Amino acid sequence: MRQRKKAVSDTKLFVLDTNVLLHDPTSLYRFEEHDICLPMFVLEELDNKKKGMTEVARNARQVSRFLDEIVNDAPRNIEEGISLKSESHKNSTGRLYLQTSFIKQELPNNLELGKADNAILGVVIGLQHQQPERSVILVSKDINMRIKARALGLEAQDYFNDKVLEDTDLLYGGVLELPVDFWETHGREMKSWVKDGHTYYQVSGPLCAAFFVNQFVFKEDDTPFYAIVLEQNDTSALLRTLTDYTHSKNNVWGIVARNREQNFVLNLLLNPDIDFVTLLGQAGTGKTLLTLAAGLMQTLESKLYSEIIITRVTVPIGEDIGFLPGTEEEKMTPWMGALEDNLDVLNKTDEEAGDWGRAATRDLIRSRIKVKSLNFMRGRTFLNKYIIIDESQNLTPKQMKTLITRAGPGTKVVCMGNIAQIDTPYLSEGSSGLTYVVDRFKGWEHGGHITLLRGERSRLADHAGEVL
């Protein structure tokens, strides 16, 4: 009997809050050998959330479908728990317990009765009394709920399974500074050749294993060296020098790169072999301006893409201003102030054209830029388009997948954002869709990433970013 008790205590019992299931419907299968419990209030809240076309409603319906599959295979006596293991979820060896009886547990007098959160806390306390030999842990995305639980002496955790990284300082930056002795240690058997205006270097040495394909490497000394990694393995790598977009002769729609990272960004955006680009950076680092300039150059001059499509998450900073009149494009216009500001800058670069010429250029640019809402992206396929997803730090990994998979042949997708400015509830720097795609796409031969570091907006904006 004693051995049986130990076997039970080895597995934990996780009580899931509703927001965990609404955030990630697959969380039911993410606890491996441990058991999970769903209080009756959670099932009722799921039922209340399932109506509508929002992401939350879709997730609520998906959770209900998963629960239906699990319960259909359940034994007659549901109180013994239902096995979560199936052909598609072989790692889930735990059991699901549904609250089938009323757990009468005295809550502190200051906790309001009948409130869902407090009822769930009551279930956790009751389970702890029923099963003192095992850990009973509340899992919730709601910080206040976790604080309440800890105040009552209960164990509570955030839901970590969707986090790509625990520490965003470890996020891939797309750039690597070479050591001072790089050529001495890696240049002994080096081969070098020139092709199409670029110099190629085949180097070998210990650092090659740490490179990623399409990562930028640089060395700034008496003879600065900037290159991109085209191929790499454990012992060797192929590097190619870059086009210098800091020089006015290589300007992109009148824009030149003002720093090293901006030069790297333009090398990615103007490379037709790169289908997917992610840009991270604080406000004022030039993400939108560079992306638009490269898009206009390749749409209107080189005709590589037929049009530019811009979309973004519509999360307001202050109070929402309510329903907006007009077509889809007109409704999105208030959210596209950044687009207007950057088009003004790009349109002023041609000083010789005069007012009439600039007005004609503005109309031409307008005809090639389409502003789309995220709500109508499902099921679409974009051919030969240059897609810009702005403020993408507010997207979940699932939404990001939905958007990126819209890309058809000849389409380039650019995702940009600042993971320090997340406005979506329950998303954090570690679980944002932007963090997710940066981590998953690193090293892919047709994808590239840069984290921009220096602000170039104005001395006022740079100083405000540092001191405020």
Descriptive notes:
With 468 residues, the protein is α/β, with parallel strands linked by helices. It folds into 3 domains: 2-157, Rossmann fold (3-Layer(aba) Sandwich); 168-241, no CATH class; 258-467, P-loop containing nucleotide triphosphate hydrolases (Rossmann fold), CATH 3.40.50.300. It is 33% helix and 19% strand. It has 15 helices and 18 strands. The strands form 3 sheets. A 6-stranded mixed sheet has the order 3-4-2-1-5-6. The termini are far apart.
Summarize the structure.
It is built from 15 helices and 18 strands. The chain has helices spanning 2-10, 18-23, 40-49, 55-72, 116-130, 143-151, 182-186, 260-269, 287-301, 328-332, 337-347, 354-368, 397-404, 433-441, 459-467, and strands at residues 13-16, 35-38, 82-83, 95-98, 136-139, 155-157, 175-177, 191-195, 198-204, 216-219, 225-232, 236-241, 276-281, 307-312, 369-371, 385-390, 412-417, 447-452. The strands form 3 sheets. It has a 6-stranded mixed beta sheet with strand order 3-4-2-1-5-6.
- The name CATH uses for the topology of the largest domain is Rossmann fold
Whole-number total of structural domains: 3
What form results from the Cα inertia axes?
globular
Q: What's the CATH H-level superfamily name of the largest domain?
A: P-loop containing nucleotide triphosphate hydrolases
- The CATH architecture of the largest domain comes to 3-Layer(aba) Sandwich
The percent of residues in helical segments reads: 25-40%
Biggest sheet overview:
6 strands, mixed
The CATH class label of the largest domain is Alpha Beta
- Please indicate the percent range of residues in DSSP E strands (runs of 2 or more): 15-25%
Find the structural class using helix and strand composition. Answer: alpha/beta
Average predicted local confidence, pLDDT: 82
Q: Say how many strands there are.
A: 18
Q: Uncertain segments of ≥5 residues (pLDDT<50)? A: 1-8, 316-321
Radius of gyration (Å):
27 Å
What is the CA-CA span between the terminal residues? 62 Å
Order of strands side by side in the largest beta sheet?
3-4-2-1-5-6
Number of helical segments with 4 or more residues: 15
